[in-house]
Amino acid sequence: MATNARPKMILSACLLSKYLLKYRLKCPRKITTSPAKEERMPKLGYGIIGCGRIFPFHARAVRKLPEVELVAVSDIVEERARKGAQMFGAKAWYTDYRKLLDRKDIHLVSICLPHHLHAKASIDAAMRGKHVLCEKPIAINEEEARRMIDECRRRKVKLAIISQNRYNDASQKLYKAFQEGRFGRLVLGCADVKNHKDQSYYDRDEWRGRWATEGGGSLTTQAYHIIDLLRWIMGPVRSVCAHMATLTHDIEVEDTATATLEFENGALGEISSTNSSPIGFSTRLEIHGENGSAIIQDNRIVYWDFPGIPEAEKVLEAHLQIGSIPNRGYGESHPRQIKEFVRDVLEDREPLINGEEALKTSRLIWAIYSSAKSGRKVYLTKGGGDA
Ligand SMILES: NC(=O)c1ccc[n+]([C@@H]2O[C@H](COP(=O)([O-])OP(=O)(O)OC[C@H]3O[C@@H](n4cnc5c(N)ncnc54)[C@H](O)[C@@H]3O)[C@@H](O)[C@H]2O)c1
């Protein structure tokens, strides 16, 4: 059977069982889908490539989804692959990810590899008809990102890139306020990351700290999410003026950077990011419009001020722990994005954060590098890299 036919078959099974359940609610005569039949409903096979730090976030999410089964995992470090499979109940593990990709019972894969391997592994997966969910950033340069996007299109498989922070309750609430026009004209957007990474963080994994393998430092790896949120809400960036420095680490890439931005809509913005702060983890996104302001800190709304909100409510909203997202670390929204990716495959929908969308955030980061290296203002292509 063609790999792409299977998701459609499973979707039909899902829709049928949904219909039966709905009918049962309305019908006085009990029509039940027998548990035995439900258990036999075919699941999509899922594979995860790379069993490092982010791996458990994918594996846990996959395990919770009834439509998929974690079939196999892969890591070049044998122990990580074996332990990863054991811990999350995968049938198989491999040190060569191509063996995982060769399995006919795997339809979707998460790529949780170092940045320079995203393009190669995604293309290898697409060539074998697998739908790809790749960790951020899409790739380490434009050319590799384009090849990933083109190959996935050619092979008619989905490509989605992780940006789980867009799925946090606080970000969703902020985006909704923007969509409803509550800010009025946007005037200023600020994104800040103050992070602490000591030298051992870079020494532990060989791929970190190098342009050729990590593709950047604090901006690419730590500030990526907050920059993505800034761009998502404020819109395309017209130009960038930036500085960067490597201040407290023995690495090639930046550990500290600042940038000022002009958005296409005329608003201004700033980004600052460091891995050299004594503060463990702190991210802050400020969106200011002519009519209102909102601030998210560490995945929580800490300030929320719009006309018509009574003073007491403003305080209440600002301090409300929006959702149950822990306010530190990676957040807990991987399951939401992974669930959506599985639905995208089942329902043949284009992922919201597809290759092109993720590339826009990477282009902005690359423009910051380009400005910092050249000492010049860098103009993004028409549409702020959104072209
Ligand atoms: N979305 C987030 O919040 C978030 C958080 C952390 C990391 N990440 C991203 O996840 C990705 C991985 O980061 P990490 O922190 O887990 O890194 P990591 O170094 O902990 O894990 C990478 C794993 O890939 C394995 N690997 C390397 N080459 C391989 C190959 N050819 N085949 C199979 N396995 C191979 C390594 O042995 C390692 O176990 C990166 O893109 C990173 O930016 C995202």
Keywords:
387 residues; alpha/beta; Rossmann fold; Dihydrodipicolinate Reductase, domain 2; 40% helix; binds nicotinamide-adenine-dinucleotide
Structural class: alpha/beta
What fraction of residues sit in β-strands? 15-25%
- List the ions, cofactors and other small molecules found in this model: nicotinamide-adenine-dinucleotide
Q: Provide the helix percentage.
A: 25-40%
Average pLDDT across residues?
Answer: 88
Strand element count: 14
| Strand/helix succession | HHEHEHEHEHEHEHEHHHEEEEEEHHHE
Q: What can you tell me about this protein's structure?
A:
The chain has 387 residues and is of the alpha/beta class. It has two domains: 5-164, NAD(P)-binding Rossmann-like Domain (Rossmann fold); 165-327 and 355-379, Dihydrodipicolinate Reductase, domain 2 (2-Layer Sandwich), CATH 3.30.360. The protein has helices at 5-26, 35-40, 55-64, 78-88, 97-102, 118-127, 142-154, 169-179, 199-204, 218-222, 224-234, 311-319, 334-346, 355-374; strands spanning 44-49, 68-74, 92-94, 108-111, 131-134, 159-161, 186-196, 237-245, 256-263, 268-274, 276-289, 293-297, 300-305, 378-379. It has an eight-stranded mixed β-sheet with strand order 13-12-11-7-10-9-8-14. Strands 3-2-1-4-5-6 form a six-stranded parallel β-sheet, sandwiched between helices. β1 (44-49), α3 (55-64) and β2 form a beta-alpha-beta unit. α3 (55-64) crosses α13 and α11 (224-234) packs across α14 (355-374). The longest helix has 22 residues, at 5-26. It is globular. The two termini are 38 Å apart. Nicotinamide-adenine-dinucleotide binds next to loops.
